[in-house]
Specification:
- There is one protein chain.
- By secondary structure, this protein is an alpha+beta fold.
- The chain is built from four helices and five strands.
- It has a three-stranded mixed beta sheet. Strands 1-3 form a two-stranded antiparallel sheet.
- The mean pLDDT is 76.
C-alpha cells in the first residue's frame, strides 16, 4: 500500500526523470541532511534483515541541493550497500562538515563543504564497471 510520503517521492522521481530527459533545470533549496538521509536510506532496508547505521556530525550544515535528486542518489547508494552486505550486516552512512586546512583534501573555498559517505563490506566493483559508475 502506498503511503502519502511514497506518492510524493514517486512524483519527485518522475519530475527528476522529466528534467533529465528534457535538459531542464534543477530546483535547489536549503536542506537539512539528517532527515533526508534517514528517509532515503530507510527505503533501502525495507523488507530486509539489514540495518543501516547513520552517523551524523552534530551541527551538520544545511546543503543547497535538488531534494529529489539527492534522495535518489542516497537511495541508490544505500540499496547498493544493502545488496553488497552479508545477511544482517550494518553498513554505515555518515555525514560530516569538512573544514579546509593544511591537513585536509578540501581546498580553501568561500563556501561550506560537507561529505556524505556510504560504506559496505562487499567485494567492490570490477574495473570495467567502476569506469561506468557516473554514466546515466
Amino acid at each position: 500500500m502506498w503511503t502519502g510520503r511514497a506518492v510524493w517521492r514517486a512524483r519527485d522521481v518522475t519530475q527528476q526523470l522529466t528534467t533529465f530527459a528534457k535538459g531542464g533545470t534543477t530546483v535547489k533549496k536549503p536542506l537539512a541532511l539528517e532527515p533526508l538521509l534517514r528517509e532515503a536510506s530507510g527505503f533501502a532496508v525495507q523488507n530486509t534483515t539489514v540495518q543501516l547505521r547513520l552517523q551524523v556530525t552534530p551541527g551538520l550544515w544545511l546543503v543547497e541541493a535538488d531534494e529529489s535528486q539527492l534522495v535518489q542518489v542516497i537511495n541508490n547508494l544505500a540499496v547498493n550497500a544493502v545488496q553488497a552486505t552479508p545477511q544482517a550486516g550494518i553498513p554505515p552512512i555518515s555525514a560530516e562538515n569538512l573544514k579546509p586546512g593544511a591537513n585536509s583534501r578540501v581546498p580553501a573555498l568561500e563556501c561550506r563543504v560537507g561529505r556524505i559517505a556510504v560504506t559496505d563490506t562487499g567485494t567492490g566493483l570490477s574495473p570495467e564497471n567502476l569506469q561506468k559508475i557516473l554514466v546515466p
